[in-house]
Structure formats: C-alpha cells, structure tokens
Specification:
The chain is an alpha+beta fold. Helix content is about 40%, strand content about 20%.
Length: about 500
Amino acid sequence: MAYILGIDIGTSGTKTVLFSEDGKAVASSTHEYPLYTPQNGYAEQNAEDWWNAVVNSVKDVLDESGIDSADIKGIGLSGQMHGLVMLDADNRVIRKSIIWCDQRTANEVDELNQKVGHDKLIEITANPAITGFTAAKILWVKNNEPENYEKCRHILLPKDYVRFMLTGEYATEVSDASGMQLLDIPKRDWSDEVLQKLGIDKALLGKVYESPEITGEITAKVASLTGLKAGTPVVGGAGDNAAGAVGTGVVEDGKAFTTIGSSGVVFTHTDKISIDKGGRVHTFCCAVPGAWHVMGVTQSAGLSLKWFRDNFCWSEMETALNMNVDPYYLTDKAAETVPIGANRLFYMPYLNGERTPHLDPNARGTFIGLSTIHKKQHLIRAAMEGVSYSLRDCVEVMREMGINVNDMMACGGGGTSPLWRQMLADLYACNVKTTLNTEGPALGVAILAAVGTGIYSSVAEACKAIIKINREQAPIPENIDKYERAYGMYRKLYPAMKGVFAELAEL
C-alpha cells in the first residue's frame, strides 16, 4: 500500500494528515500556535512556529500510524495565503510574517495603483490592489523598515517557507503565487512589468511550478528530525482555497463549492481564464495545470450567525449544553419555523464591510423591515437568508462573466446545516452536495502529491477515484420562485444604503 502526506499550514494551527493512496485518512495531528497583534489592524505570526508545528505533527502521524516512512510516496503542502516571509543571506527569518488578515497597507495599496495603475493591475494580476495581498506587504516593509528590506534575500509564502525547510528549495506554485499580486495570471509566471514598476527584484522570488509538479525532496537533515525518508518528493501543493477545491472534487468546468465559515466563499473552476474588470471577484490560477478559478467572498457569513448566537441566544446555548447538542442545531430548528422571507425581514451581512460585489469597507450589518410581528426566530432566519443572498451575489457576478455553475458542493460549518444547504440550492437553482471526505485542504494537496508522483495520471482522475458524495439536496421548485422575489428586494437594499454607510463612517 502506498501512502501520501498532506500538510495544511493554517492560521490557527498546522494539520498533518496521512492518507492511503485511495484517500482514506490513516492518522492526523494538529498543532496550534499564536497570532500576534502588536497594533490595531496588524496581524503577524512566527514562521518558526509553523515549522515546529510541521515537525511535531509529522512525527505524530508517523508514530500513530506505525507505517514505514518509505511507503510515503509524496508530500503536498497547503497553507494560508498572502503571508510575507523574508529570509536574509543566511536563510534566517528577518521579522515576523505579516499574514493575510493584516490591514496596515492602505498607503501601499495607493502606491500600487499609482505605480502600476488600477486597470493594468487587474489586466495582469486579475485582481485590484487590496491590503491583504503580499505585494502591498512587501512595499510596507520597504517603506517602513528599510533596514529589514535591505537584508532580505528571499521572499516566500507561509507554506513555501515550510517547503524550503523541508527541501532547501526556494519555490512556490501558481495558485498561492496568484495571491501575491506579482504573478501574471494569464501567463502563470512572475510579471516583469509589475516587479519593475514596484522596484522589487525578481531574484527575491522562488521558482514557480504547477501545483502537482515535484519541487524538491526531503533532505537528510529533515529525515533525521521527523522520521520521513530522505528523498521523498514534495509537490507544489496549493493555497488553502485551491487545495480545498481539489479536496472536494471541484476540478472541472461547471463545478463549484460554497464555504460558510467565518467568511463565505463561492469558488468555481474554469478551464478558460475570465477576469472581472470591476475587480468584484478574484481570478487565480488553480491547482489543476492550465486552469483557473474564480472566487467571490462574503466577509461575514458564518460570523453573522455566530455574532447573533453569542449576543442574543443565551437560552439556546444553555439548552444545547443540557441536551449535549450543538447550539446551531437549535438555531436551525428555530429558523425552520419561519417562512421564506422571514415575514418581510431582511438582513445585510456586512458586519465587517463587504468584498463581493460591493468592495465597500464602510458597509455595515443591518436588519431592515423589523416590526412587532418579528421574534428571535425571524431574526435567525433573516440572518441565514441574508448570508445566502450575499453568496448568490457572488454567483451572479460569475454568471455575468460567462461562468456557468451547475454542480455545487457545500463546505465549512454552515455547510453542515441542512436548512442552509436548502437555502443555497433554492437560490442557486442547482443541486447542493456534501462529501464524505472531510479533510479539505490536507486531502487536496495529498491528491496533488499522488498525481505528481504517478499514482494517478491527472487531478480529475484522482478526484473521481477518491472523492465520495455524502448528501445531495435538490432545489424545491416553489421555493425558487419565492426566493427570486425576496432576492430581488435584497438587491435593492445596498444601493439605497450606500450613502448612509459612507456618512456613518464619518460620524
């Protein structure tokens, strides 16, 4: 039996999973680490913490499984995107990594637009300049910590720092590199034009690979440290969302997934590159060679329901504790008693501003239509529907771009809710499925490793063999009509409130 290893370097911790070649999880280990916020809006982590978590979790799964490490045919890496890791000439980490959710780079976003141009950035990198991307972070260090920038000899993303530690290779792959805003997305390689205009030396960046390609091998030093076998291939892997797509089988045209975690994501695969000139959605190279993905983001998806639960559902939380059930089980049951449209109550899920389709940091969460008829269960249903309408907004942008979505997977905590899945099926007017496989990005990059090492001939072939459907919910015809009317009203709310949100931000 051959085995493959998937390592997912997340924000809260690193999860390492050992899989058999047919995709069954054999052993799993997670090690957590801290997040540092030295100032308001800052978010940093120690790259050494990621490495220690990888070493310890790899040793854990080898000990737990008891397999011979020589039977591990390949290793795949996934990770949080956009983080900045800087190494000096001696390969020492220069400063803490500025990670994806850091918001310090507003001035550098302006600099990007001035030096490259808003339209040119979208043309080359397929995305507008935003604070989260790596290019703005590099400029921030250049502008604010020139001594650190002067010492820098290598720039890596979080998972690619781990790759360097495993193999000694400075490398990345197209899906994660897409989120740096330095990659020519149509050409799938570094953009000389963007780098030149920003004054960033191309020699600082690693070699770009396709996701299933072998990028290096486990060194003898790492083998002695972890128990892995020296020479084990490490493939490119993928950024977390691209890896999650492979882990749910979203690797062909027409296939997509919706994640309802703290934020919400609609992610669709496309064999032909499609870029939204308005920058409302992200277009990245995906983990399937020669293909791309388009991704829309709702900032406060599951966070909206969590916020409401934590602040207004104390009795439900206490009851759930006594019943030994998840509090969301009870909020679902409450929402099921309310009809579609929540008796003319709407919720705009903009607790932390919004990305798709409005790109408005000033937008805020609102309930509209409250009357004395409404009770807690109405607000719960309205919150769930408001998130679903916002995710439908993402799908509508994709449809405008000529991308047809007819096969939808549901992931994340919200995806476990039958009620929420039914809302999505009715609003998308297509079947919504879940998978038996629950390892997400770790499984996705293990699949990429299986392809790169010849266990499977292609990503699509591997996914067909490994990914198994668990549940499938079809849209209910009469619900489609009801939701279309409600969604039409929802789409009128943001234009009516946009000016108010801007004024509110100035109060």
